[in-house]
Amino acid sequence: MSSSIKTVLGALALAGAFEGNASAQETKVGIGISGWTGFAPLTLAKEAGIYKANGLDVTIRKIPQKDRHLAIASGDIQCAATTVETWIVWNTNGIPTTQLFKMDQGMGSDGIVARPAINKVTDLKGKTVAASAPGTNPHFTLAWILKKNGLSLKDVKLVTLEPAAAATAFVAGTSDLDAAVTYEPYLSLVRDKPESGKLIADSLQYPMVFDTFGCTPKFIKENPKAAKALTDSYFQAIDLIAKDKQKASPSWAPTSSRRPSSSRSRSPRSSGPTARPTRSSSMARSRPSTRKPPSCCWKSASSRRRQPTWIRCSTRRS
Using one digit for the tens of pLDDT, what is the confidence trace for 17-28? Predict the structure, then answer.
């Protein structure tokens, strides 16, 4: 065999080796999320190519919170985004998971809506309330708020419905629901149709909702670089949203075209339960922003600047 042929074959073999190594460096990972607006940076990181740039091959699946741990247990997904108390329930029930970073905090984006005749939480006694199954945040939210008002889950008639279905059924009036527990973007279904009911309690009044991202200990141990890459990717997506909202917006559902009225543009800290909701990232260490948020927003922070940024919500109905 001539030396020139050997050189060509050697070059092809070397190129194939590099291609194989590049492919091997791209770690496959499945992530389970819900339709909650605050999880949009995870989707953006995929659609903007951030995961891929960080050596990850990510598949995102929308799985109800009550079933997400089953997907983890079966190996269908290795990571998820959910609320802190949900991770505790999963671990208690034999699904080992480790939280990697905090994403956001409830600032009025989760709440209980009730019919016009119901004015306060204590009026829910004996009423029919829709909430997700035990082990989910809406179920925990209802139990917590009832307890804070001297009631328990035994004092209401509980109907199991996921947040989207609960809000839709409540607004449509197709069921005998007196109240429902849901979160954004589904909470806006009720806000946009006040004749169907009103918000009587939310996570601004009762601050107990914290979302975090985590994976199985096995995945983290076997893929420490990938775990770091997932964290970096999330905050790079946050940076992208802050820098270029137009570029980031395709990964979100179209934002509301509704212009905020004066009553909706107040600071969420001073506006009470009828104001537009937010969630606030604990990753920010700076003083709270004094800027007025848009009519529907959540508060997050840049991984580098740690400066809070108000970002318009999705109005996705899925």
Answer: 434 444 457 899
